């Protein structure tokens, strides 16, 4: 099989991943900002320090980061920040309730891989390493710098 034609499409999965993950974060952030009081209360109930600062900060990072991913600008930084929010979600909202309900849950490490946050961390880590790709504002700016 000649894979050169597929190599020419290498930018497409990157674009689809950026648009999908970016839209998910941006649209979710709009909902969080629209109910900021309730979102802040969730942070308070989870025991997250300074929930009045942390909840709006997370929502803004998710909105700005999601938009940046969709546009393909500052992709590596945006993906790293969004991955950090997902790591925080795993550490505060996903793992503790799981362990409270199923104390032996970590006898099966595959339980972590069922968490959507883990999949998002993997996709975001890939974007940190791969960058935005050809179909992005990052690529346009890089081409302009070379001129």
From TrEMBL:
Compartments, as annotated in UniProt: Cell membrane
Pfam families: DoxX
Keywords from the UniProt entry: Cell membrane, Membrane, Transmembrane, Transmembrane helix
Top-rank lineage group of the source organism: Bacteria
Keyword Cell membrane: yes
Membrane topology: Multi-pass membrane protein
InterPro entries associated with the record: DoxX, DoxX-like_oxidoreductase
Primary site of residence: membrane
Membrane spanning residue stretches: 12-30, 50-71, 78-98, 118-137
Annotated family: Belongs to the DoxX family.
Protein name according to UniProt: DoxX family protein
Organism this protein belongs to: Allokutzneria oryzae
